[in-house]
Amino acid sequence: MPVTLRDVARHAGVSVRTVSNVANDFPHVAPGTRARVQRSIDQLGYRINPAARGLRTGRTGVLGLMVPKLSQPYFAELADETVQAAADAGLALMVEQTEGRREAERSWLRPGGMARMWDGAIVSPLGITGSDLAERLGCPVVLLGEHAADLRAPWVGGDNVAAAVAAVEHLIALGHSEIAAIGAQRGAGGETGRERTKGFRLAMSDAGLPVRKGRVVEPVSFDAAGGAAAVRTLLASRRPPTALMCFNDELAYGALAALAQAHISVPDEVSVIGWDDLRGNEFTVPALTSVRVPKAVVAREAVRLLLSLLGQPSGTEPAPVRIVIDHHITERASTGPAA
Q1: What beta strand segments (E) does the chain contain?
Q2: For position 245, which CATH number holds?
Q3: Which of 93, 108, 148, 251 could hold 246 in an S-S bridge, CB 3.0 to 4.6 Å?
Q4: What's the number of domains the chain is made of?
Q5: Both 217 and 272 in a single domain?
């Protein structure tokens, strides 16, 4: 027979109401009591009944996740981590792909639209604006990513400038001074590239190193093909760099391929660092060093923040909370001392 709230209450020595409060992540439960009830939930294998909860609370038990493109490995891995974070909270997750289009991002948040299918949404936008968020939304929203960092709304993400500085400092500490950056962006939706370029230039300036002409590359695309094309251009320059900072791991994959095709040894002749620390990085040749902002932590904090918004009284204006996730450099074999 399925484990019930009453079974958990008896096992933990508390009331059924207390078990319900813990299971639904309601506040105002003493930490010690919450831990004891959670141990009983885990030991007995209790699972929330979404239909019953919906009748009690008027909620669907479903969260939404909106990302630009699931074919991009970063967003696929983020979606996977968010599914797990929602499941850990006893909730389901519905994933929508927006292609980064403002109208798609807006339409799924309007009252009466897709928003009616979920209790709240986690959104990684490329087009949405502050005026869009000032309109009445169909559900509470937590934003992710660089485009949303300056919007007045609850937000979770990394510090791109500081992380870019750390990446360059890693290369400088290895003795590199001829460093190029691949991933610059201009125009709408280019906040990621601009922030990382800012950090690159700041670290070079602080170290007293010049950023030579042509060393900040805007790739033709932000995938492996774009990374490979950028490297071929850099290698054809009068003074090729000895280290490459790529603004995502896919660009770095292309960089590694182009260097291998040119019979240039990594890291003996050129070091390469990527960004996102994708799951396959340890299997590249050589294994790719990468900037890591843990996607599991981003997902977990976004779900936690969204649940806190759902716990607020209806009509409450959400505070523009900013949760900055720590970054670090995952060192592997693709970076080494300058020749």
Answers
A1: 62-67, 92-97, 120-123, 141-144, 155-158, 179-182, 216-217, 243-246, 271-275, 289-292, 322-325, 328-330
A2: 3.40.50.2300
A3: 251
A4: 3
A5: yes
- The tokens describing 196, both together, are 């990382």
pLDDT in tens, 7-47: 999 999 999 888 888 887 676 788 899 999 999 998 988 87
Let me know whether 31 and 119 are in one domain: no
Cα–Cα distance, 145 to 123 (Å, whole number): 9
In 3D space, the residue among 266, 270, 292 whose CA is nearest the CA of residue 279 turns out to be 292
User: What residue has token string 């990446």?
Assistant: 167
pTM of the model: 0.82
Answer yes or no: is 74 within a domain: yes
Q: Is residue 312's pLDDT more than 70?
A: yes
Query: What's the CA gap between 171 and 151, in Å, rounded?
Result: 33
User: Any idea what DSSP says for residue 315?
Assistant: T
**Burial of 3 by CB count in 10 Å (0-12 exposed, 13-18 middle, 19+ buried)?**
middle
Domain holding 22, by residue range, is: 1-39
- Cα distance between residue 279 and residue 78, in whole Å: 11
- What integer is the mean pLDDT of 185-195? 88
For the stretch 89-147, pLDDT in tens is 888 999 999 999 988 888 877 776 666 788 999 999 988 888 888 777 778 999 999 88
